[in-house]
Amino acid sequence: MKNQRDKLHQYQKRITVITDRETEIAKECLARGDRSKAVLALRRKKFQQSLLAKTDAQLETLEQLTSNVEFALVQKDVLYGLQQGTAVLKQIHTEMGGIEHVEKLMGENEDARQYQREVSEMLAGKMSNQDEDEVEDELEALEEQAHGVKQPDAISYPTAPNTTLKAKPDEDKRKVRARERAKEQGQTQAAEPMLA
Fold first, then answer.
1. How many CB atoms lie within 10 A of CB 15?
2. Cα gap 57→60, rounded to integer Å
């Protein structure tokens, strides 16, 4: 089709050259006083112009057809892309095993988390308050190391207090932690049904 379009363009150029030449011939004939040849030249020019108009109409039709074909090819490519995308999605869904498989996996994940909680609760119940305090102290030390808080190298001694002596801060922490653990265990046991 594009070759046909190019041929029509060449034909138009040729007709334009012919019409220009017919006009020159008519002028020459009139200059010589040959009116009949001048009329004949202008009639040939008019015929060539009508051919040029028909060629323009054919060229427009051909370009419209070419445009439609190109658009149809684009639509075909889009459709092919959609088909390929749908096939890939189906393959991915098949590999995932469908909704049932995902739900099963989520259930297994929840079961594993529940098992981990039960193990942690069992271990917490078997440990004494002193063991729990040591675990908490070790956890605090690890957190300080992880956050970049350095332990002081040199021990700085505080000034002597002017007030009466109070309980050691570590003992206060331990008592507070013991109360919190007792409260948590009481809530956990109240939330869980008793097994027979």
1. 19
2. 5
Going residue by residue through the chain (196 aa), what tens digit of pLDDT does each one get? 778 777 878 888 888 898 898 889 888 888 888 888 888 888 988 988 888 888 888 888 888 988 899 999 999 999 999 999 999 998 888 888 778 888 888 888 898 898 888 888 777 666 677 777 888 888 888 888 888 755 555 466 667 666 655 555 566 777 788 888 777 777 656 555 554 4
Token couple for 148:
């970049």
Q: What tokens appear for 1 in the block?
A: 């089709």
Contact 125, 118 (CB under 8 A): no
DSSP state for residue 167 in the 8-state scheme:
-
Q: How far apart are CA 41 and CA 24, in angstroms?
A: 9
105's tokens: 């996996």
Asked whether 25 and 41 are in contact (CB, 8 A), the reply is yes
For CA atoms 145, 150, 156, 160, give the dihedral sign.
negative
Distance from the Cα of residue 64 to its chain's centroid? 37
- 193 φ, ψ (degrees, to nearest 5): -75, 150
Q: Name, in order, each residue with C-beta under 8 angstroms of 66's C-beta and a sequence gap of 6 or more.
A: 1, 2, 5
